[in-house]
Amino acid sequence: MAWIEILGYFAAFCTTISFLPQTIKTIKTKDTSGLSLSMYLLFFIGVGSWFIYGFVISNYPLLIANGITLFLSGIILLMKIKYK
After folding, report:
1. Which of 1, 11, 24, 80 has its CA 20 to 30 A from that of 35?
2. Closest residue by Cα to residue 61 from 18, 16, 23
3. Among candidates 54, 48, 53, which has minimal Cα distance to 71?
4. Pick from 54, 58, 2, 84: nearest CA to 16
5. pLDDT in tens, 18-74
6. What's CA 78's distance to the chain center, in Å?
7. Torsions phi, psi of 32, nearest 5?
8. How far apart are CA 25 and CA 7, in angstroms?
9. Residue-wise pLDDT tens digits, 62-72
10. Can you give the C-alpha Rg of the chain in angstroms?
11. Is 33 helix (H, G, I), strand (E, B) or coil?
12. pTM for this structure?
């Protein structure tokens, strides 16, 4: 594995794991008042686009990171809509 691929996995890990605390807090408290619906909607669309791009070019760091981030941000987005 080349160092640049390791860097890709490391970057993917850091950016993906950063959503875990917010997701856990939102699930526990069901409080989404401090979260912007438009930001999460645009973010979700952007991450979904990165996921598709990663699939098209067969880039596993992009697929893994954006797949997990899409899932976590999707939970927050759905909760923001549900508990608005």
Report:
1. 11
2. 16
3. 48
4. 54
5. 889 999 999 999 999 998 999 999 999 999 999 999 999 998 888 989 999 999 999
6. 13
7. -115, 15
8. 29
9. 898 999 999 99
10. 14
11. coil
12. 0.82
- 3-82 folds as Monooxygenase (1.20.1280)
Contact 59, 50 (CB under 8 A): no
- d(Cα 62, Cα 84) in Å, to the nearest integer? 31
Residue 84 token pair: 């608005």
Token output for 77 = 């987005």
Nearest to 23 by CA among 53, 9, 1, 44: 44
Domain boundaries, the chain: 3-82
Per the document, the length of the chain is: 84
